[in-house]
């Protein structure tokens, strides 16, 4: 981990976000950044069945919990920056829901931290989803057991840290 804590940015709101702007801000001319890994989640149409997804959150609590998860990731990997943007409100198929982006000096840390953050956002951040189908009545979406299983796998897994010589997966050149 770097001597300084990484910058952590967490935003929740109804507005869409610009992926390029968010990712560029993580690098922001910092020569220590060697990798930025990101995940963007979109609302899918569930085979034409879904007209919209409504996301509700507990304001203040959602941002605080996402911040705690981001701080945990920063404690596991040598990160330089973390950005999490999550939308709320009514979102139609094809629209963005969430961005998780992480910068680090090494790709292994960035990839692992990005996946860790997304796994825990699905299980710990206080968001509720309501489906609005194209036809018929909708309803609230239940938590999925496979989301909990993905988060549980991190309990016994040590962080993937780069070696002192560089990337753990590539020989030094």
Verbal overview:
It is a single chain. With 173 residues, this protein is an alpha+beta fold. The chain has one domain: Aldehyde Oxidoreductase, domain 3, CATH 3.90.1170.40. The protein is 29% helix and 31% strand. The longest helix is centred in the last third of the chain and has 18 residues.
Short description:
By secondary structure, this protein is α+β, with helices and mostly antiparallel strands. Helix content is 29%, strand content 31%. It has one domain (14-152): Alpha-Beta Complex (Aldehyde Oxidoreductase, domain 3), CATH 3.90.1170.40.
Assign the CATH topology: Aldehyde Oxidoreductase, domain 3
Largest sheet, strands/sense/barrel: 4 strands, mixed
Main structural class: alpha+beta
Oligomer: single chain
Helices and strands, in order, run as EHEEHEEEHEEH
Q: Tell me, rounded to a whole number, the average pLDDT.
A: 88
Radius of gyration, taken over Cα atoms and rounded to an integer in Å: 17 Å
Q: How many strand segments?
A: 8
CATH architecture: Alpha-Beta Complex
CATH class: Alpha Beta
**Poorly predicted residue ranges:** 163-173
**Going by CATH, what is the homologous superfamily?**
Molybdopterin biosynthesis MoaE subunit
Helix content: 25-40%
